[in-house]
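Example 4.3 (complexes with small molecules)
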Amino acid sequence: MNEARHIRNLALAGFMGTGKSSVGRFVAAQLCFRFVDTDHLIEQRASKTISEIFDHDGEPAFRALEGEVVQELAQREKTVISTGGGLIVNPANLASLKEHALVVCLCAPAETIYERVRYASHRPLLRETEPLETIRRLLVQREPFYREADVLVSTDQRSVREVATHILHEFHSALRVPHDGQGSHPCPRP
Ligand code: S3P
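Answer. The structure with shikimate-3-phosphate bound is encoded below.
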């Protein structure tokens, strides 16, 4: 692992519907870390929903906001960061996250993702007549970027608790690797 990294946060990446929010909240509670979601930070900043940003300003404007929010996350500590499904497709975003966070990418097959997201209407990229086809196409495009995360974890047929346990193990292992001489427990209890 890169010597210059100072891991103090945990970032969850991966496609829509892979469980980043539910797993992230659970892991944050276990670590007594804060939980933030990049989409939520973007909505606050823009005072618009993600769908409104896509509709009014276009996807490039949304991606620019993602880039701004990612840079600011470098100031955080003891935070679980759930990232939008396309965020680490930009290598600069992934590089920035890796400076301060262990980046865990959650994965699931297209069919599982489809079952999880099919009744939700807030994802502009899936407002298509053939959302399963869109999911398959985007997964193929994005897979090489997702593979650049530190750790890949399947969420298929696994409970939130099971996935969280796996991630907590990986996070504690990463902290035990000396980074700038620091490898302490992330949340020492009194
Ligand atoms: C997107 C995923 C969404 C949101 C936006 C774009 C993507 O986040 O950032 O709709 O490009 O995959 P979730 O992965 O949290 O649904």
